[in-house]
Write a structure and sequence with these properties.
Elements (H helix, E strand, L loop, with lengths): L1 H21 L6 H30 L6 H34 L4 H4 L2 H20 L1
Keywords: Cell membrane, G-protein coupled receptor, Membrane, Olfaction, Receptor, Sensory transduction, Transducer, Transmembrane, Transmembrane helix
Main location: membrane
InterPro entries: GPCR_Rhodpsn, GPCR_Rhodpsn_7TM, Olfactory_GPCR
Length: 129
C-alpha cells in the first residue's frame, strides 16, 4: 500500500515536471510554480517514505541521530518551500482573475524567478532555524 501510493505520487509529479519542461506553451508563471511545487512534493516524498517503508517492512523503530537530523532538516525545508509556493500560486490565481490586464506586468519572468528563489530560500532558512 505504501509503495503503491508513493509510486503513484512520484509518477504524477514526474509527469507534471516532464510536461512543463517539454512543452513551450506551458512556460507561463502558473506552470512554472506548479513545476516548483512538484519538485518540493518529490523532495518531501523522497525524504519521508524510504524510512517509513523500512520501518514497516522490517519492523525497526530506530533511527540514527544524524539520520533524524537530516530527515527533519529536509522535511522542514521542503514543507516550508511548498507552503510558500502554494501562497504564491494563490496570488497568481488572484491576479489572473481579478487583475487580468496587470498579469503580464506583475508576473514577468524575472519576478517569477525572484519569487521562486525567495520561496526556496524561506524553506532553507526555516530548516536552518
Amino acid at each position: 500500500l505504501f509503495l503503491g501510493i508513493s509510486l503513484a505520487a512520484l509518477l504524477g509529479n514526474g509527469l507534471i515536471i516532464s510536461a512543463v519542461a517539454c512543452d513551450h506553451h506551458l512556460h507561463t508563471p502558473m506552470f512554472f510554480f506548479l513545476l516548483s511545487l512538484s519538485l518540493t512534493d518529490l523532495g518531501s516524498i523522497c525524504t519521508t517514505v524510504p524510512k517509513a517503508m523500512d520501518n514497516s517492512l522490517w519492523g525497526t523503530r530506530t533511527i540514527s541521530y544524524t539520520g533524524c537530523a537530516a530527515q527533519l532538516f529536509l522535511l522542514f525545508f521542503f514543507l516550508r518551500a511548498e507552503f510558500s509556493l502554494l501562497t504564491i500560486l494563490c496570488y497568481i490565481c488572484y491576479v489572473s482573475i481579478c487583475k487580468p490586464l496587470h498579469y503580464g506586468t506583475l508576473l514577468g519572468s524575472r519576478a517569477c524567478a525572484h519569487t521562486a528563489a525567495a520561496a526556496w530560500a524561506s524553506g532553507f532558512l526555516t530548516a536552518v532555524l
